[in-house]
Amino acid sequence: MAISKIPSAGFQDNVKFRNIIINGDMSIAQRGADINDVAHQGYCSDRFRFHKSNTGELVMNFDQVTDVPSSQGFSNSLKLSVGTVESATASNELVGIGQRIEAQNLQYLKYGTSSAETLTLCFWVKSSVTGTYAVLMFQQDASSSPDRRYYSKTFTISSANTWEKKTIQITGNQDDTIANDNGIGLDFRIILSAGSSLTSGSSGAWGSSTNSAVGQTANFSGTSSATFFLTGIQLEAGTSASDFEFLPVDVNKNRCLRYCFKHGGEASTQYLNAQGGYYDANYIAFGLVSPPVPMRSAPSLTVNGTVIVHRLNTDYTGWTWGFISGVQSQSWFVSANKSSHGVTAQHSLIKCATTSDFFIYDSEL
Asked: What's the mean pLDDT in 135-157?
């Protein structure tokens, strides 16, 4: 008697990791779901980097929200809103949101050969500012002249405050190989505003920085209280678009953890898995910290809120936190520094008193 094959309930039969973009559904936001008054470059939803260059007074706000296109399966989107408007756009100004993609994940694209793969980009967008926007693909380690290569194409937001799906093809770069390392292979951005010197190159061709935002006319960052929502970003090899590739939350989270590890902030009065083992009057060494997955490279450390040293029901505040030398991608020791700290014995703990208190270990590109 023939035995019928029972379909697998696991995701492995359906998920092929077609999507080059990580966290394209904006479901992971380790740094926070509400980040306001950002006057500099930096990260918002996991893996998504806000980029600005040659701007003046522009300040942005970032939120992970539940406003999503109807009946598409998404739960979250990234909302960008203008806090302080950019009153004048410099000729070399560029503002955008996107993701830097690790080079060793892109070798199958065969860049630098006549077989370089075409990419198809799809995303959902909703903005209060209509008009023509650009998508930029930037190859930093290009070998031909110029040393960096830029490729852009336009899309149009037709109706204000309405979810629209966009599909764009990106021709592969046949001239420049992507290095096989853990550096930046491609830098993908959706351009929000651009100056005149960056909008007049050749659309749909790899070239110099004048190709950064060819045809861009929309000026999002120069519009008071403007809003811009994104979700469902998928970038895949080939000339046709497939449905968005939803990943199980644990798989999506682990992919993000390679680049950013939030330590603490999960609950009020959380003690981290690192104990103090060495003291002097101004210094405490804590360890060993091991991330859930190996990080891309040895991370940097920033502190959100107030992280406390706790010993025998006593909280000690006012610390400067850092690394002990020898930090690696899979383990490290942290240090707490404070002049005459007053902690008199070993076996203290690191305490995060609220969900707003945590370390961020950053290994982003």
From this structure: 88
Rounded to whole angstroms, the Cα distance separating 307 from 305 reads 7
Q: Are 227 and 81 in contact (CB under 8 A)?
A: yes
User: Residue 146: which pLDDT band, with cuts at 50, 70 and 90?
Assistant: low
Under 8 Å between Cβ of 49 and 364:
yes
d(CA 355, CA 98): 27
What is the distance, to the nearest Å, from the Cα of residue 102 to the centroid of all Cα atoms in its chain? 12
Beta bridge partners of 136: 152, 189
Contacts (Cβ under 8 Å, ≥6 apart) of 36: 61, 62, 83
What are the C-alpha distances in Å from 97 to residues 78, 87, 102, 108, 271?
10, 20, 17, 25, 35
312-321 per-position pLDDT tens digit: 999 999 999 9
Q: How far apart are CA 18 and CA 68, in angstroms?
A: 22
Phi, psi of 101 (to 5 degrees): -110, 130
Q: Does domain 14-257 have CATH number 2.60.120.260?
A: yes
Residue 140: φ, ψ to 5°: -80, -35
Q: What is the dihedral of CA 316, 317, 321, 325, to 10 degrees?
A: -20
Q: Which two tokens stand for residue 325?
A: 């030398």
Phi then psi for residue 351, to 5 deg, are: -120, 130
Helix (H, G, I), strand (E, B) or coil at 318: coil
Residues 243-291 pLDDT 10s? 999 999 999 999 999 999 999 999 999 999 888 988 899 999 998 999 9
Residue 183's contacts (CB-CB under 8 Å, 6 or more residues apart) are 102, 103, 140, 141, 365
Let me know: does 137 contact 183? Beta carbons within 8 Å: no
Closest CA to 189 of 89, 256, 100, 111: 100
Structure tokens at 156: 């149009």
Burial of 3 (0-12, 13-18, 19+ CB in 10 A): exposed
